[in-house]
Specification:
With 112 residues, the protein is mostly beta strands. 4% of the residues lie in helices and 25% in strands. The chain is rod-shaped and about 85 Å long. It starts with 7 loop residues before the first helix and ends in a 29-residue tail after the last strand.
Length: 112
């Protein structure tokens, strides 16, 4: 069972826990988060969306409980994501035109 109650990073939708079918987990307010029973050697899959609104490094920890023991987490799932704003840098700061005869107009085009 995940505890998604008091995690402000998740609440701000920076990290969003989704079912493997890409549907958000929706739990009643009395529940601390998604829960399910899995058999030995069975796999439980989920996905995490990372949707920050501004550049930066974001970290959060999601407590993970087993067997309904909600006093002490069995382990934590640690999430880290970084949003780097895209930038465009030109390596050369000059435009080199081929030699042309005198009095002939020459044009160079840069397309972005």
């Amino acid at each position: 069972q995940f505890d998604l109650r008091d995690n402000i990073t998740l609440d701000n939708d920076i990290f969003r826990v989704l079912h493997s079918s890409l549907v958000p987990f929706i739990s009643p307010s009395t529940s601390i988060g998604p829960e399910d029973e899995i058999e030995p050697k069975e796999i439980f899959s989920f996905k995490i969306n990372f949707i920050p609104k501004k550049p930066g490094i974001y970290k959060t920890r999601i407590p993970f409980y087993i067997n309904h023991h909600q006093q002490i987490p069995y382990t934590y799932i640690e999430l880290t994501g970084e949003l780097i704003m895209p930038s465009l840098i030109f390596e050369t700061r000059r435009l080199i035109l081929p030699p042309v005869p005198l009095d002939i107009e020459s044009v160079g085009t840069v397309r972005v």
